[in-house]
Fold this sequence. Notes:
The protein is α/β, with parallel strands linked by helices. It has two domains: 6-84; 89-186, no CATH class. Helix content is 40%, strand content 18%. It is built from seven helices and seven strands, in the order H-H-H-H-H-E-E-E-E-E-H-H-E-E. It is globular. The two termini are 34 Å apart. The model has no long low-confidence stretch (mean pLDDT 91).
Amino acid sequence: MSGLDAEQLDEMEQMVGELLKKPWDKGRGRQRELTLREALVVASGYMRQNIIEEVWAEIFDVDQSTISRYITFLTPLIDQATAEFRPSAEEAAEATRGAIALVDGTLWPCWSWAGERELWAGKYKTTGHGSLIVTNLAGRLTFVSEPVPGNQHDMAKLKESECETILKLAGDVIGDKGFIGTDYIITP
C-alpha cells in the first residue's frame, strides 16, 4: 500500500526514526495508535495512492484525526529523510544530456478548495497542484518539477522552468499533445 518494499520500508523507518526528537514508542505512558512503521505506510501510501484519510482510518481501525495527525507530522520528515535520493536539476540535466527523455504533466489532487480557482484543473475536473515528470526511455524517474497551481497547462509549467533547461539538453524528448508548440519535444 505504501509503494515501498520491506527493505525500503526498513530503511525509511530507520531514517525517519533518527530524525525524531523523541522516540516514537517511549515505552511508557499512553502508546501511539500505530507503530512508526504503520504510520509510515499510511503517510507514504497517502502520498502515492491518494487514498483518503477515512479509508486509511478504517484499514488501521483508528480515528481519521489520528491518520491526519500522522500524515501531517511524518510528511516533512519523509521529505527530509529522502532528500539525498532525489536528483537535483543539475544531476537530472547531466543524466538526460544527449539521451532520450520522456516528459508528461501530472496533477497532485488536493482538497476541493472551491474558492481557490487557480487550483482547479479543468482537464481533471478537480483541484490540485501540477508538476512535470521527466523519465528516461526505460521509464526511470529523472526529475519532478516543483508543484505549481493546478490550472496551469503543461506548456505553462514548462516555460522557463528547470524542466525546460533539463529537456533542452536531451538528445530527443517525447511528450504528449500537451507539449505541441515546442521545437524540441516530439509530440503526436
